[in-house]
Amino acid sequence: MHLTQVLHLAAALNRTLVLPNVGKSRIGACGKWLFDAYYDLGSFAKQAREVFGVPRGTIMLDDFKTWVDMRPKAPAGQLVFFDESSTALPDGLDGTLVTAEDGLEVYVDHHPLAHDDTRLKNARCLKWKFNKMRTDTHHPVSLRLPTLGHPAAVNPGETLVRILQREDIAQMSIGNLQNFGMIPQDVLDFGKESHLETMATEDAEVLLVHWDLRHFPFSTLSTTPSGPDYSQNIRALANKLTKPHQPYVAIHWRMETVPPALLPDCAEALVDSLSILLADPSLAEGIRSVWLATDLALSSSSKLQKDSVQRSNTFKTVTSEHTEAIEIVKMAFGNGGPLEAWELTGLAQEIERMKRDAEAYGEEFVLEDEDDSGLLWEDSGIWGILDKIVAMQSALFVSGARGCGRVSSFTKQIVDFRTEGGGQNIPRNVVELFG
Questions:
Q1: Distance between CA atoms of 144 and 146, rounded to whole angstroms?
Q2: What are the Cα distances from residue 88, in Å, to 105, 159, 332, 363?
Q3: What whole-number distance in Å separates Cα of residue 135 and Cα of residue 112?
Q4: CATH number of the domain that residue 314 is part of
Q5: Of 67, 81, 111, 297, whose CB neighbour count within 10 A is largest?
Q6: Cis omega before residue 217 (within 30°)?
């Protein structure tokens, strides 16, 4: 969804969008994998055509790097930071507040970009990955948008674009070079005043965008889908993983933000909700499997063990209450438990099953042909996408209510898919909250 917003920004500024790399559930220039490891290029190209109104408007990151490396003159890149005004000013911002138009604050840094800038903690690769691109000719610009609920936050996209195109903002981002003696030495050595004038008046050829917004400034301008579709390889794999279990129940339980002391009671509430749902013959007919997806890296198999893949980039502390909650759920499916008639499974178990099946037939089990070493299987983003698709296609979907979970964008996308037409071919298509 956020990438669609950047797509609208690129179109409004008449710029080509460089499709970011992906990895560990994130998108960005420093990701390990190309964009199409997560997303379907065809569907996003169609979306880009609708936004740009022309057949092109995007380029893959590898192609962009080749373009940078082959230029006879190093292209100039400028950092543009987008965040929300409700947050504290980020460390590293040394700029002057230039304007506060319609609740949108604009800062221009006093100095060109430094690669050790703390704001680049997730983009440390810029220094070596794009070493042919200059980042010392234009000062970073920071745009801090009003939070959702502020009157100016209804449709700030047009204001945002207008400010980025203001001549005074552009001049401030390059003017300090001459005022403070920051002309790069090779330009001084070049010795041509005309070259210096050109450098000081041109817009940066490349805008390096750091996007950290929780709402969508271009939401009212877009009639396009909310985001790119997932890759066909991942969708095909999700179908293979779930085929032996159709129809099934899917549970998504985000535990990270739940107070640990509440987790055991929440687990009991989950077991009760499943027992009630599966006691209804009209809902439970044909269902033999329950798929558990959580942000806790613990296997849903009968043995309580750590998964090989971390499910969340922010979930760092696992308490005894977390493991107790998972154990309560597992025991419900054990001998004598209220759910012993059903099998509890999850992504780790089903991937292992498919790996064993592939090995039995002498086949390689890889997601992408170029991933010979199978490293994609260790990427948390791949696991998250698979869990999401599995939940979207389940006959019954169960998730934590407030107090026992958090309605994250992950959960919302699943519910929206099931209620807004995507679930029309799903038998039963029931959504239930527990807790």
A1: 7
A2: 13, 22, 46, 53
A3: 7
A4: 3.40.50.11350
A5: 81
A6: no
Q: Quick one: tokens of 264?
A: 């055991």
Alpha carbon distance 397, 390 (integer Å): 10
**pLDDT averaged over every residue in the chain:** 83
Over residues 329-387, the pLDDT tens digits come to 999 999 999 999 999 999 989 988 988 988 898 887 776 666 655 677 788 899 999 99
C-beta separation of 290 from 411 below 8 A: no
pLDDT at residue 197, rounded to an integer: 43
Containing 7, the helix (H) or strand (E) segment is: helix 2-12
d(C-alpha 112, C-alpha 122), whole Å: 19
Domain that holds residue 67: 2-221
The pairing of strands 206-211 and 77-84 is parallel
- Report residue 380 as tokens: 């948390």
Distances (CA, A) of 178 to 31, 111, 192, 197: 36, 11, 15, 10
Lookup result for tokens 């840094």: 109
What 8-state DSSP symbol labels residue 118? G
pLDDT, one tens digit per residue, over 65-83 is 999 999 999 999 999 999 9
DSSP 216-278: -TTGGG--S-SSPPBPHHHHHHHHHHHGGG-SEEEEEE--TTS-GGGHHHHHHHHHHHHHHHH
Same domain, yes or no: 284 and 387:
yes
Q: Are 250 and 342 part of one and the same domain?
A: yes
The number of distinct structural domains making up the chain is: 2
Most confident of 154-158, 235-239, 272-276: 272-276
Q: Could you give the dihedral angle defined by the CA atoms of residues 346, 348, 350 and 355, in that order, rounded to the nearest 10 degrees?
A: 180
What was the pLDDT predicted at 194? 41
Please tell me whether residues 216 and 236 are part of one structural domain. Answer: no
- Whether residues 83 and 116 share a domain: the answer is yes
The mean pLDDT value for 99-125 works out to 82
Residue 41 included in any domain: yes
- Regarding whether 214 and 236 lie in a shared domain, the answer is no
Asked if the peptide bond before residue 247 counts as cis, ω within 30 degrees of 0, the response is: yes
Task: Specify whether 45 is located in the same domain as 8.
Answer: yes
